[in-house]
Amino acid sequence: MAKEESSTKDQKKGDLMGVVLIRGLHDLSPDVRLSLKSLRLLRKHTLAIFPESDSFKGIVSRLKDYTAYSNISKSILEEVNSKRKNLSTDSKIASFRLSPPKGGFKGTIKKPKTNHGALGKWKQEDFEKLIKRMI
Known about the structure:
This protein is an alpha/beta fold and about 140 residues long. It has helices spanning about 1-10, 30-40, 55-60, 75-85, 125-135; strands spanning about 15-20, 45-50, 65-70, 95, 110, 115-120. It has a six-stranded mixed sheet, with helices on both faces. The longest helix has 11 residues, at about 125-135.
């Protein structure tokens, strides 16, 4: 019974979360490298989409210095899925290889979003615009 309660608590109401790897894979700690591999983020500008849950949030919080992330709508998932091939065979995580954003990142890729950079948590509208520029 406890397993069923924890799994329903882990799954929210169908919200999706997206993560884009912005920085390269050079000089990463083994923890970060393992987290990136578990989300299928194996190259720069790769997008991973998965259901929002506490376990995925923990992984994403470990990657905040290398990725941009936010919640996304299902329409963005459908748009990316129609234009790009899903690289992952896993049913929980969808992974897509994108191009660099048209017009570049607004700010540096070495600083967090709060300091006029591109890393860390984004507002949903801004993150969806970024993904559209990368498709």
